[in-house]
């Protein structure tokens, strides 16, 4: 599965970018919310997602790179998010935040920065719907993939199998044709892509090409 990030597109043409994501065959639209505190950049808040909601039937995958996300969950739920992912490093109350998301009937995701080990989120692994392994330092699109993060994906995949857990595993940052097969072979379910997706003119062909690379049928 693929989640193109609108961060790689043009915010002033959000409706067109969402249509381009949908017609490419991707499954999700990924929204990168940055607060200028947890990460240096500021992008947009819940209103942007709310305004985009009527424009698209895509699954809205909202990645909150914000401090103390518990203050804003209700607002992002109302805005029309389908999945809300919060950072393990951004709150002292991760269990409470994840419970708030689930109680609102949305999928609850947890993201970990490159410097955060899988063991840090061990207590919530049986409880979460989704785990997002940051494969760059969060804050900017277009950065280089940190290959050391592959071991976290392998670890999460084997823990899932051993314990019968059902979370999906995502990776975010620096993903494209070069590393997609390794990621999927290691246990990845969902690739977030900003720059590699939006730099393609023919996005549907790009998604087909990625599928072919993953299946080992690329020419
Ligand atoms: C980074 C964001 C990513 C970003 C990925 O902080 O969370 O979702 O848009 O962009 P690329 O694919 O360009 O690394
Ligand atoms: Zn993201």
Brief write-up:
This protein is α/β, with parallel strands linked by helices and 219 residues long.
Q: What oligomeric arrangement do these chains adopt?
A: single chain
Helix-strand category: alpha/beta
- Order of secondary-structure elements: EHEHEHEHEEHEHEHH
Whole-number total of structural domains: 1
Q: Per CATH, which architecture?
A: Alpha-Beta Barrel
**What is the fold named in CATH at topology level?**
TIM Barrel
In whole angstroms, how far apart are the ends? 21 Å
Number of helices: 8
Uncertain runs are none
Account of the protein in words:
It is a single chain. Helices cover 33% and strands 19% of the residues. The chain is an alpha/beta fold and 219 residues long. The protein has a single domain (2-215), classed as Aldolase class I (TIM Barrel), CATH 3.20.20.70. The longest helix is centred in the last third of the chain and has 14 residues, at 150-163. The radius of gyration is 16 Å and the shape is globular.
């Amino acid at each position: 599965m693929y989640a193109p990030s609108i961060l790689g597109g043009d915010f002033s043409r959000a409706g067109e970018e969402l249509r381009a994501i949908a017609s490419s065959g991707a499954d999700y639209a990924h929204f990168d919310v940055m607060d200028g505190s947890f990460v240096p950049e500021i992008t947009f808040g819940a209103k942007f997602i709310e305004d985009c909601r009527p424009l698209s039937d895509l699954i809205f995958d909202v990645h909150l790179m914000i401090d103390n996300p518990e203050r804003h969950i209700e607002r992002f739920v109302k805005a029309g998010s389908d999945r809300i992912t919060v950072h393990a490093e951004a709150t002292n109350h991760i269990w409470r935040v994840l419970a708030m998301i689930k109680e609102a009937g949305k999928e609850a995701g947890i993201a970990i920065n490159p410097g955060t080990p899988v063991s840090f989120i061990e207590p919530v692994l049986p409880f979460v719907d989704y785990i997002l392994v940051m494969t760059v330092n969060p804050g900017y699109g277009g950065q280089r993939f940190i290959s050391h993060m592959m071991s976290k994906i392998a670890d999460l995949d084997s823990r899932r199998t051993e314990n019968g857990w059902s979370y999906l595993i995502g990776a975010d940052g620096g993903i494209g044709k070069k590393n997609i097969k390794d990621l999927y072979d290691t246990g990845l379910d969902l690739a977030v892509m900003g720059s590699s997706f939006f730099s393609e003119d023919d996005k549907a062909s790009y998604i087909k090409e990625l599928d072919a690379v993953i299946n080992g049928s690329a020419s």
